[in-house]
Amino acid sequence: MEDFRARVRGVGLTELEWVQVATGPRGPIFAFWLPGKDAIDRWRALRPHASTIGYPLILGSDEDLDRLRYNMGLSPSEIGIVDAFDPATWFAGRLTAGDELMEPEELAKFEQSIHGPWPDTSPSNSFHVPFDLLTHKPVKKLWIGILPIEQPWEAAPALEYGSWNECPSPEEHAAVMHYWSERWGAEPVVIASDTVEMLVRKPPHTRDEALVLANEQFAYCGDIVTQGVGTIEALAAILLKGQTWFFWWD
Which of 23, 79, 90, 154 has the fewest Cβ atoms nearer than 10 Å? Predict the structure, then answer.
């Protein structure tokens, strides 16, 4: 803890009430809490110092943090996925994973249900976690953790996040985030108990690019379409020139 505090002081950051909230496979994870309304601004203030103090990540509420800690260590670690990752093969495999369980007519009906016209909507440029789902007001408390990692895309393995229901494994998260980091300049800002949010520095600027990305995101997290925006085209519309991405697994 003292070494970590010294690194924080060394970059001139305000002294905070840091606590060690977990020990992951990469080492101890220190965190502090603050009002939700201040979380994104504080993340942006911490981000430039990631190479010295570690990578900042919003971990969500008290309940989110408890669930993250509970799930740590429950899934076996996988080796080599990032280096061997083939995006086209992985996304295609995810998209067709359940096809054999459906009758042809049922599959055709499902495929039709997830497509529609291009909607008139605005790009996504804000984050969800700082706000209450029902009231849309800022939540009272969010945790920001500092992960002992060198690259943002290593966040999920550092938290051992994933491998439940349709949520990818920690190493699959890392492989997808690495790919999207190189392609779109995307990096995680939030990893809470069932939610991932990312900041995007090079979003798609054409409909064709946005549709390709929307299909990838649907493969990665189908719930954002089937329990969210409704169609691939609706997802593509908010990805077009959008600077934030949102994922949620039921």
Answer: 79
